[in-house]
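Can't paste images in this forum, so I'm doing it all in text. The chain is below; anyone willing to post the predicted structure tokens underneath?
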Amino acid sequence: MIEIQIRETDEFIKLGQALKKAGLVESGVDAKFVIQDGLVKVNGETELQRGKKIHDGDVISYNGETVKVSK
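Text version of the structure:
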């Protein structure tokens, strides 16, 4: 499991940014395509919005990897 941190000053991170921060995609364009193709799940549900707000405790799944987001 990969763990990423939201900056203390932020309430959330956007899904596309979280994928990049976790090293699962190389660019925002890559994130856009894998999300649009329905390959990314947030808390077990397929997510199609790149701008989806991801909060502390959320879990992202993509390409066999799991990412836990914490503050």
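The chain is about 25% helix and 30% strand. The helical segments are 15-21, 28-36.
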